[in-house]
Amino acid sequence: MKRITTIILALAMAFGTLQAQTKVMSHRGYYAHPGSFENTLTSLKGAQDLGVEGVELDVHLTTEDSLVILHGPKIPGSNYPDVQKLDYRTVRSCILPNGDRIPNLREYLTQAKKTPGLMLFLELKAHPTPERETRLAERVIALCDELNMYDQLTFISFSEHLCDEILRLKKGTVVIPISSSKAFTTEELLRKGYSGVSYHMGVVMNRTHLLDEAHNAGLQTVLWPVNSYDLADFAMKHHVDYVSSDEPQAMLNLMTAIRELNWKQTKKLIAFDLDGTLTAPKQPLSAENRAVLDTLAKRYEVIMAGAGNCKRIFNQMGGYPITIVGNYGMEESRMVDGEFRIVREEKTPADRKFFDRKCMELRKKYGYTSYKGDPLEYHESGMVTFGLLGTKADQADKLAFDPDKVRRREMFPEVKEVFKDYSVFIGGTTSFDITPKQYNKYDAVMRYAAEKGYVKDQILFVGDDFTDGGNDSQIRIYGMDYIRIDDYTRLPEKLQFLF
Q1: Which of 29, 175, 203, 298 is most solvent-facing, going by the fewest CB within 10 Å?
Q2: Any idea which architecture 352-380+384-436 has in CATH?
C-alpha cells in the first residue's frame, strides 16, 4: 500500500477541479498510534482530537440484548470466536490489546456527544436471524431516542433487512446500505428511502456512473477503504461525500493540500461570518484580522454574511469598508462614495402573539423564566431573536452562559420543531435566531453571487459553526465550499494559503 504523506504536493499539482468537499471518516476510530485500538473509547477520543468529520463503529447485540462496540465477531486477544454468543458480563471482562475494555454503545455515544460536529456511522452488524436483527434495530433506536442525538448519526449496514428495520422504526433517519459487490440503482435507493450508498472501491472503480448518478440524485456516497493517494484522487473527482480511511491524519493532510491549491486558483468570492470567525462575540475587529481582509481583497471579492444586522456588523468591525449581507440575507449594505449605506431591505413582520406564546412555553419547560429586559427581540426585518437570558443580560453573564453551545443544542430539536415553518439557528452567545424560511447564509450568499455573476464553485465561505443548528449550517448542508475557524486569533495562519 502506498503511503500518502510523501506525495501530497505532487498530487495536488496534478489534481483537477473539485466541486464538493469530500470528508474523512476515521474507520473504527483513530487507532493508528501507540496506546490505541480499533472501536475503543481511546480510538474515538483520538478521532475527536484529530478533528475528522466522521467516525465508523461496529455494533453487536449480546445474548441478553446489550449493545457493544467491536468489529468482531472474534474478540481480539481472547478465545471467544463470536461476541454475539456471549453475555454482556463476559464481553466486558475481556481486555483488548491496548488495555481498554470493549465499550457499550451508550458510553460511546455519550463520549461522541461532546463533539457535536462529529458524524457517527453506526454499522449494525449482520446477525444470524431476521428476528435478532430486528431486536438489534429496536435496541439501537431506543437508545438513540433516549440520548436525542440523531443529528450526529448515520446508520449503515451490509444487511438490507437491518437498514429497512431502522427506517420502519424511525422514519426520517439517515440510513445507508453498504455493498462490497451489489450495484444499487438510484431508483432502488430512493424507493427504499435510503439516504445514500456506501461502496467498496472494487464495486465502482470501473463503474463510476454509480457514484455520479447517486451524487446527481442528491444521495450521499461513501467509499472504502481509502488509504492511498490514488483513491483519494478518485473519490474527490467523483464528489464522494465521505471516504473511510485507516490513515485519517494523512488523509486529512492530503485533502487539505489539494483543496487549498485548487481554491487559490478558482475562488473569486470569499464570504465571512463575524463572531467566532473574525472576532470574539460582539468584540472589535483586531488589527491582525483586518490585515487579512485587506490582503484577500487584493485578489478576491470579500464580503460579510452575518446573522446580525448590517449596521451592527459595520460598527463592530470599526467601520471597515466592506459589503455586508445581514440578518441572514434580509438586508444588504455597501460603501457608496465612502459612506455606509443600506441598499436593500426586506421585511416580513413576525406574528408576535405566536412567538410570545411559543417562546414562553419553551422557557417554562427548560427553566429560563428569569431574564433581564424583554424575552424576545423583534427586528424590523422580521427576524426574531430568542435570547434565553433576555435582551438586557449582562455581557459577562452572556459569555459565560453557553460557550460550547451544549445547552442550546439540547433544546435545538424542539425549538426547530416548534418553529418548523421558519429557519432556526443557534446564534450569538445565549440565543436562537428565527427567520422566515427563505433566509439563511447559503441563500444570502448565492443571491449576492448571482447578481455579481459568480457560480457556486467560485465561492468560499469562512465561518465557525457548520454543525446542525449553527448559523453557518446551510453552507455545509447545501454543499458550498467552506473553511471552519476554530480560533479566530489563528485566522491569518489558517488563510495564509489564499494570499
Answers
A1: 298
A2: 2-Layer Sandwich (3.30)
Q: Which helix (H) or strand (E) holds 463?
A: strand 459-463
Residue 20's pLDDT is what?
Answer: 57
- From the DSSP assignment, how many helices (H) and strands (E) are in the chain? 19, 20
Q: What is the DSSP letter of 40?
A: S
Task: Note the CATH architecture for domain 8-259.
Answer: Alpha-Beta Barrel (3.20)
Q: What does each C-alpha distance from 240 to 231, 232, 459 come to in angstroms? A: 11, 10, 20
Give domain 267-346+439-498's CATH architecture.
Answer: 3-Layer(aba) Sandwich (3.40)
Residue 225 in grid coordinates:
477503504
Give the separation between CA 343 and CA 166, rounded to whole angstroms: 50
Task: For residue 305, give the H/E element and its range.
Answer: strand 301-305
User: What distance in Å separates the CA atoms of residue 185 and residue 90, rounded to the nearest whole number?
Assistant: 42
Q: Where are the domains of the chain?
A: 8-259, 267-346+439-498, 352-380+384-436
479: left (phi over 0), alpha (psi -120 to 50) or beta: left
Residue 12 has pLDDT above 50, yes or no: no
Which one, of 272, 249, 236, lies nearest residue 445 by Cα? 272
Residue type, 105: L
What is the rounded CA–CA span in Å between residue 48 and residue 119?
Answer: 11
Q: Same CATH topology for 267-346+439-498 and 352-380+384-436?
A: no
Closest among 327, 429, 423 to 388, alpha carbons compared:
429
For the stretch 425-483, pLDDT in tens is 998 889 999 998 889 999 999 999 999 999 999 999 999 988 888 889 999 888 899 99
Bridge partners of 104?
68
